[in-house]
Amino acid sequence: MSTQKSVYLWKNILVLVVAFTVFTLVFSFPRSQNRRFQINTSWQQQQQQRQARPRRQNWWVWRRRQILQDQWNPDIYQRLRWDILPPGHRRRPQQAGEISPEERGNRFEGDMSVNPPLRKKRGVLSDKFQRWPIGIIPYTLHKSYNTAQRSLILKAMNEITSKTVVRGSRCIYFTPRTHQPDYLDIKPDVGCFSSVGKNGGSQTLSLEPDCFYKGTIMHELLHSVGLWHEQSRTDRDNYVTVNYENILADPVVNRSVNFLKYSVDYIDDLGLPYDYQSIMHYGFAFFAKDPYSPTLSPKYPYAYIGQRKYISPIDVKKVQLLYGCGGHTKWDCNFEQQNICSWKQNTDDDFDWKVFKGSTPTAFTGPSGDNTNGLGYYIFAEANGHENRVTRLTSQRIPTNLYCIKLSYHMAGYTVGMLTLRAQFFDRHQTEVLFSKRGIQGDEWHKSDVEFQARSPFQLVLEAVIGSGREGDIAVDDIRVEPGFCNYKRNFRGIDLL
């Protein structure tokens, strides 16, 4: 009897266990499914957030996009400006109603002291009398500057000097004045400003206490070297938009003139591309009513303008070209010494090129002056008496490298023939045509830039084939052979432009 009770008890226990298990499975299944769905949803949300979060290498691009999306949100813009400037270069973000030191005073374009005669002729880069002789710029420092301020000025000078060095030789050099009649008088005045180029005698370069950032000092020093503001270029409308409605209304000075662009008759871009990175470019809110809204908007979305951190590669090139030290090689020739430099007249042609000045002898053909300013020398192949004949010039041996070969040419007249520039290789007796023009090109000088990757040593051959008549002079000027690319490769990735 006890055995039957025991079996009965165990059966009841087993039934209860099974019932409990079934009950648990039935009523907990929807909850587990719901929990699993919640876990999956949470995981998906985390993945989406992770994808939305900017990667480290694209962080600055993401910040720049945030500015564009927020339409120049002041808070984000201030944080961005503060974050991007490294220690030693940080400037407090521009506050409402505040202007930068370069904008103070009633100077021409804010920070330039320009004499009235010079305002009418802005192409200082073409005016040799406004360049400092052989690139030496004497200066004096005002006695009120303390040791730290003097040190920062010297650092800015040294950086410009070191960046513009060409093959170990200094292009420009700042030196303390001894007895020179023309010099920079660096002293604290109202705001930050400088004359452009050499004006003669003592010329003021003002650096008040608020100007003491190395980039601001370099900006003013480069004005004194001879550089103008980048946004004054003829082609600036292709790169920036001027928002005139946000330009500060000043009853004393018309600030809109600070945003004028000038024709090629007034300003020379030296054939270099527009430079968002230039230390000579205005900032986004210069002379603005609302400093949180732009007066200048770059047309490239991630371009940052108005940096005052370093002298850009194109700024360097401008200084080098301005002072004639922009990477000259022994194959360059501008014919100003009234000879053909290191080039040689060929002996297997029909006649020789001539070094000439002014208009060519035959009417209705040839240039009226050289390419630079109309007053110098150039070479030309005279058509009169040399119909259907050939003349050639040959350079010295040029080693293997990548080169940018530049020249200016003039081909005007009813019977103009053909001008060709070839590379003649030494190791395989072959030639490669780099440049060729045939027929009338108009009564003006034209420029040609050719990139050429030489796989072996070569020499250049400049050949003119005269046409069938006397009105077919062909002229050439300013031959340059520069190692490297013809144009700088600019980087537009977000904050890298600063």
Structure write-up:
The chain is an alpha+beta fold and 498 residues long. The protein folds into two domains: 223 residues, Collagenase (Catalytic Domain) (3-Layer(aba) Sandwich), CATH 3.40.390; 140 residues, Jelly Rolls. It has seven helices and 18 strands. The protein has a six-stranded mixed β-sheet, covered by helices on one side. A five-stranded antiparallel β-sheet has the order 9-12-17-14-15, with no helix packed on it. The protein has a five-stranded antiparallel β-sheet with strand order 10-11-18-13-16, with no helix packed on it. β14 and β15 form a beta hairpin.
Structural class: alpha+beta
Q: Which range best describes the helical content: under 10%, 10-25%, 25-40%, 40-55%, 55-70% or over 70%?
A: 10-25%
Order of strands, widest sheet? 1-5-6-4-2-3
CATH class of the largest domain: Alpha Beta
CATH architectural label of the largest domain: 3-Layer(aba) Sandwich
Radius of gyration, rounded? 35 Å
How many helix segments? 7
Low-confidence stretches: 56-98, 115-126, 488-498
Determine the CATH topology of the largest domain: Collagenase (Catalytic Domain)
Question: pLDDT average, as an integer?
Answer: 78
CATH homologous group name of the largest domain? Collagenase (Catalytic Domain)
How far is it from the N-terminal to the C-terminal residue, by CA? 98 Å
What is the count of distinct domains?
2
